[in-house]
Amino acid sequence: MIDTEYMKIAIDLARKATGYTSPNPLVGAVIVKGGQIIGRGYHHKAGTPHAEIHALNEAGKESKDATLYVTLEPCSHYGRTPPCAKRVIEAGIRRVVIGTLDPNPLVSGKGVELLEQAGIEVHVGVMAKACADLNEAFFYYIQKGKPFITVKSAMTLDGKIATRYGESKWITNDEARIDSHELRANHDAILVGIGTILADNPQLTCRSKTIKTPHQPDVIILDSRGRTPSNANIFTETSRNILIFVGPNSKLSDRQRLIDIGADVVMVQEDTHGLCWTEILEELGKRQYVSVLIEGGARIISSYMQEQYINKFVIYIGDKIMGDEFALNAFSGSHLVHLSDSLSLAYEKVMLLGNNIKIIAYEKERRGRLCLQELLKK
């Protein structure tokens, strides 16, 4: 097997902890000696041993003169766990193959430098894009201090998310809905507006048939007046946090009511687009939300688009056409009058889910992703 094949195995290992490592990255590691894999590992959860440590523990004394494949540069600093680079050196690893450098300023390039100073052969950049994509949210967060924002929307072929009366079950098929629940499990939190809570009373949980114990993301609600009902379905899942942003005009009694039923309530200022997105993102960054999935209605999504805070779009298109001008649009409220002012997307992936379509796209001019070329220059 060649380097890329072993790195693929490391990537697959890293994915096993999807949804559980935040605010840390997903990392997988494989140790190879004599053409045989002697150690495997992945980072399970923040504060627990890193992928390299698990792999070294499995390989034991056989680690001496072996090759370590790891999706992300080994850390060189003391955090909640000791530095991995030091342990790699002590184990006698002869060669280290790294997918990408770590953009964290505490780490970037320093782990490689430490390994090379110890006489270890280091090769960086094997399957770099795949390894970076694995942690696109973490890479963005660690550089910007704000969460990576993904918008999810399910719509008809003519761009409608519900009938004029609000009926939306179901625009997409079973395969698309299962996929969207897995998307939820990949994020730290789901963000919706109060309109969605009042109209649909959603649970906003991950109910996946393919994930044995899916991560349940926190819920973030934009509720300027504090109108979230005390008996809303979002409060039935007690293993997660509920964060509600309110405006200055919300009543103290409503804020206290929400606090009493277990929600965190944060007041932010309002601007022309509603609650101030800048303050919201800063607060989410302080709370170490690395990835946030927006499932709000057209107004929430459009206001975010106008502020240019969206990093990624995941769009599910069903097999229906409504043809009703009064049906609810997926994107509306931006008031753009020139085609040149519209948002241009770069399609990353287009796939069929049964007879539905899934599109993954990024803003063409500001993809919101790690620049691999710059990272690999370090």
TrEMBL record:
Positions bound to NADP(+): A154, W170, T196, D200, S224, G297, A298, R299, I300, I301, S302, S303
Q: Which CDD domains match?
A: Riboflavin_deaminase-reductase
What EC number(s) does the entry state? 3.5.4.26, 1.1.1.193
User: Where, by residue number, does substrate bind?
Assistant: S168, R184, L204, R207, E295
Question: What Pfam families does the annotation carry?
Answer: dCMP_cyt_deam_1 (PF00383), RibD_C (PF01872)
Q: Which PROSITE patterns match?
A: CYT_DCMP_DEAMINASES_1, CYT_DCMP_DEAMINASES_2
Keyword annotations for this protein, in alphabetical order, are: Hydrolase, Metal-binding, Multifunctional enzyme, NADP, Oxidoreductase, Riboflavin biosynthesis, Zinc
Q: Which cofactor does it need?
A: Zn(2+)
Q: Which InterPro entries match?
A: APOBEC/CMP_deaminase_Zn-bd (IPR016192), CMP_dCMP_dom (IPR002125), Cytidine_deaminase-like (IPR016193), DHFR-like_dom_sf (IPR024072), Eubact_RibD (IPR004794), RibD_C (IPR011549), RibDG_C (IPR002734), Riboflavin_Biosynth_HTPR (IPR050765)
Indicate yes or no for the key word tRNA-binding. no
Any GO molecular function: NADP binding
Pathway where this protein functions: Cofactor biosynthesis; riboflavin biosynthesis; 5-amino-6-(D-ribitylamino)uracil from GTP: step 3/4; Cofactor biosynthesis; riboflavin biosynthesis; 5-amino-6-(D-ribitylamino)uracil from GTP: step 2/4
PANTHER family (alphabetical): 2,5-DIAMINO-6-RIBOSYLAMINO-4(3H)-PYRIMIDINONE 5'-PHOSPHATE REDUCTASE, DIHYDROFOLATE REDUCTASE FAMILY PROTEIN (AFU_ORTHOLOGUE AFUA_8G06820)
Q: Which family does it belong to?
A: In the C-terminal section; belongs to the HTP reductase family.
| Name this protein carries in UniProt | Riboflavin biosynthesis protein RibD
Q: Which organism is it from?
A: Veillonella montpellierensis DNF00314
